[in-house]
Amino acid sequence: MPLLNYTTQIDAFKTISEIQKLLAKAGASAVMNEMDTNGNIVALSFKIKLNEHDIAFRLPTDWRPVMTVLENDPKVPRGLRTQEQALRVAWRITLRWIEAQVAFIETMMVTTAQVFLPYAVTANGQTLYEYIGQNTQLLLGEGSI
Asked: Which residues pair with 54 in a beta bridge?
């Protein structure tokens, strides 16, 4: 089965705009695009208020693994095995994930902070996920299995 959204023709910038609207709906007070040296948007940073404090989040979207999947799937036509297509697909996948998360938030199954917590930016500039990944003992404790 080919990768989700692999045939999309929707420009990455249009998708990013849709994501920004969803983040605002979820409570983001500011959204910033982060670009690589080629001008490709590779992450969205945003702020959400938690207990009267603005918390920064950084949501990366890496097109390179998508490119690898497109290149290695024989069902994907050669014309869709481009960096531009990988960017479009990567952002569409991110959009679908955020749409699902906003549905959880809207039904009050979770809070916005809970959904995006792995992407919270720590004082040293890492995401919480990156920090925990480098400090796994924080999760393990002495009595872990």
From this structure: 49
Q: Is pLDDT above 70 for 125?
A: yes
Q: Domain for residue 22, yes or no?
A: yes
26 domain-assigned: yes
Residue numbers of the domain that contains 61: 12-140
pTM given for the model = 0.88
Nearest-10 Cα torsion for 135, 139, 140, 144: -170
Total of domains in the chain = 1
What is the enclosing helix (H) or strand (E) of 125? none
C-alpha pair distances (Å), 65 with each of 57, 94, 106, 133: 22, 13, 31, 20
Task: Report, as an integer, the average pLDDT of 84-110.
Answer: 96
CA distances from 21 to 52, 79, 86 (A): 22, 31, 22
Task: Taking residues 106-111, report their average pLDDT.
Answer: 93
Structural domain contains residue 112: yes
Q: How many separate helices (H) and strands (E) can be counted in the chain? A: 6, 3
Residue 5 lies in a domain: no
Secondary structure class of 124 (helix, strand, coil): coil
